[in-house]
Amino acid sequence: MTKGNINVSVENIFPLIKKFLYSDHEIFLRELISNATDATLKLKHLTNIGDAKVEYGNPQIEVKIDKKGKKLHIIDQGLGMTSEEVEKYINQIAFSGAEEFLDKYKDSGKDSGIIGHFGLGFYSAFMVAEKVEIITKSFKDEPAAHWTCDGSPEFTLEPHDKTERGTEIILHIAEDSTEFLEEARINDLLTKYNKFMPIPIKFGTKEVNVALPEDAPEDAKPEKKTVDNIINNPNPAWTKQPADLEDENYKSFYRELYPMQFEEPLFHIHLNVDYPFNLTGILYFPKMTNDLNIQKDKIQLYQNQVFVTDNVEGIVPEFLTMLRGVIDSPDIPLNVSRSYLQADGAVKKISSYITRKVADKLKSLFNENREDFEAKWNDIKIVIEYGMLSEDKFFEKADAFALYPTVDGTHYTYEELFNKIKANQTDKDGKLVILYASNEDAQHSYIEAAKTKGYEVLLLDSPIVSHLMQKLESTKENITFTRVDADHVDNLIKKEDTKISKLTEEQKTELETLLKEVIPAEKFSVQLETMDSESTPFMITQPEFMRRMKEMQQTGGGM
Ligand code: ADP
Ligand code: MG
């Protein structure tokens, strides 16, 4: 047996590790399973290229709880390590990696919320274990090795009689971490971090029904059999080629991602790029409501099929955080703060790539099946309008497919609308006046009045529409949005066209005097002449700018 000292410069790194990542203790399991996965994939590679002359087989990773012994086992059938390799990779490299990591991030990391996502590796086991053993047998023809360390810089290394290839890590769970001996807790962790890792992970067994033979009698009871409980799907949809997937595959992957979500997504976008950065993923457009406080944090970020976080702020543009799905990229730096992320060149490129892909997909949906696109418009407009407001690049692209529905249910693109109304909807200064209603019922009579005059009236009712109108007014030349009940709709309405009120002059004067008493003149104006209907003898209008100012004050803070 060898006894030795891990070469430590800090007096004792283990208490530091433990204290440091307090809130992130649970990541130890992901780290150990990542190592087991790496070891298995390395062996696969070596057998493929002929450098390892062993049978690769169908390796699994197993996680086992020994509640009585207070131990947690992580067992793989990967390439294993010789004693020299344990000495080198565990005592020296893993250690210096952990030390370097701590050194670098112990001050900055705490509040960034992202630290601990990667980097601490094998030594993160000491966050939850008072003693760690490694029993490992290399695929090379050498005896197995047994390494033990109790969280001090001292370790022992001796031969072991293990004969199967691979590595078993045994964690002697510390008194304050016994939650990690609970089946439910481990199951949650495995589901959270390892649900899509590339090697099958076994956690216990489960009972399943054996399929009955065709000719079985109707009252035959299905037999049960016990099978391995594999917690992951090693080949998730996003790792496949879009050409190999049907619409149904995307839908079932959506259900796999969100088992509690019963509504189907409207459509998906498969991301797949390997230059100048690596990124794969699938984004889904769920049905959106007009509620801006829609739940975000629904896109999951993975790194080589290992779950990292469901907070992708800074990586995808804000307006797309309303989408769902997964992004997998080894090129996103994870041990850094959000503000650093946003400034990172690679991350910027990723963000604009995603924006472009989403815009392109929307464009092709629009081109390929406009009817369907129009039918979905109400459920997706909030994302598109928000994107047009916040990302100029997106605005440029979305201009071709953003829709402006009218109160009659026609959907115009901006260009179509422009061509339709340019001849007869200008004010006296030659400005194009786009009329819109925000509430069909409340503004009904105004809408009808405008329609009688042959004007198009849009129905714009999303909560950010006043911002979008302002954006359009500042981007497009010489246009103005005017709500149908605003006072200067008057300017449009040519006097000779107007229907004359049925009220007598006397009645009008009477009514006007009365109304002026109750309605503050600086806020509203009263219109009597233009109305002909009995049910609506007069209109009260409000200057457009005043109403909009009020609206912007209401929604402005949240944007
Ligand atoms: P990293 O995974 O980033 O290299 P770790 O601290 O997680 O850092 O692991 C250090 C090294 O220990 C690995 O690079 C690998 O060589 C070795 N190792 C860890 N776990 C295993 C395992 N299950 N099988 C084989 N080698 C392993
Ligand atoms: Mg590792």
Automatic annotation (TrEMBL):
GO terms for molecular function: ATP binding; ATP hydrolysis activity; ATP-dependent protein folding chaperone; unfolded protein binding. Keywords: ATP-binding, Chaperone, Cytoplasm, Nucleotide-binding, Stress response. It comes from the Bacteria. The keyword Glycosyltransferase does not apply. ATP binds at residues 31, 35, 76, 81, 96-97, 167, 338. Residues 218-227 have a biased composition (Basic and acidic residues). Residues 217-237 are annotated as: Disordered. The keyword ATP-binding applies. Pfam families: HATPase_c_3, HSP90. PANTHER family: HEAT SHOCK PROTEIN 90 FAMILY MEMBER. Belongs to the heat shock protein 90 family. This is Chaperone protein HtpG.
